[in-house]
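One such shown below:
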Amino acid sequence: MKSQYVLPITIVVAGVLIAGAVFLVGKTSVPTNGSTSTNITARVYDPSTDHILGNPNATVKVVEYMDLECPHCKAFETTMHQVMDYYGTSGNVAWVSRPFPLASIHDRAPKEAEAAECAADQGGNTAYFKFIDGVFAITPSNNGLDPAQLPVIAGQIGLNVDTFNTCLSSGKFTKKVQDSYNEAIGLGAQGTPFTLVMVGDEAITLSGDQPYDSMRAAIDAVLEGNPAATASTTTQ
């Protein structure tokens, strides 16, 4: 279900003031203008289709549209694990991952995205995030991962490789991956990673490989607009 939303301008301004160039410094696989949007249409977290690391009821959900062959997504994955290490124990922030394979420059990325969905189909969210971790751990990026490594990764994370291969060859998740790609384009994404910092159905957008400090600043700005969440957030 999609809804129209506008993030309260005070939160956006707070984020910019705290983060400085938080929305301007990102790098992407395809050039973007690095701008923010406060009037977009996006889909809120859906447990029946999305993959989440952290508390499904978290106040803030960082929704990332990723390309598994994007070097900036590979770097941003490290950042997001740092974010979850910091905020995850409080239960106030969760990471939602959605596929956004840029087939025009990474023609192996759509099948890799389907492979991650097949991992999730067999092992849930845990297998999904272990699988993308496995891909990013070995891919040289920019279309450099040998497709033969996909079932190897599946086996390494404890999946049934035959079941995984059957899923991947069937095209079971081809449409889901394409729909997610179309969704990101509809939101104005021009490159990867493309990220929404969401509270309910409100969001701010971030383009590119945002550094850890910028992510912290953006998330803190949003949390400050939610006193109940801020009060229970642990500090380190």
Remarks:
- Helices lie at 9-19, 71-87, 109-138, 149-156, 161-170, 174-186, 212-224, 227-232.
- DSSP finds eight helices and seven strands in the chain.
- Strands lie at 2-5, 40-43, 51-53, 60-66, 93-99, 194-199, 202-207.
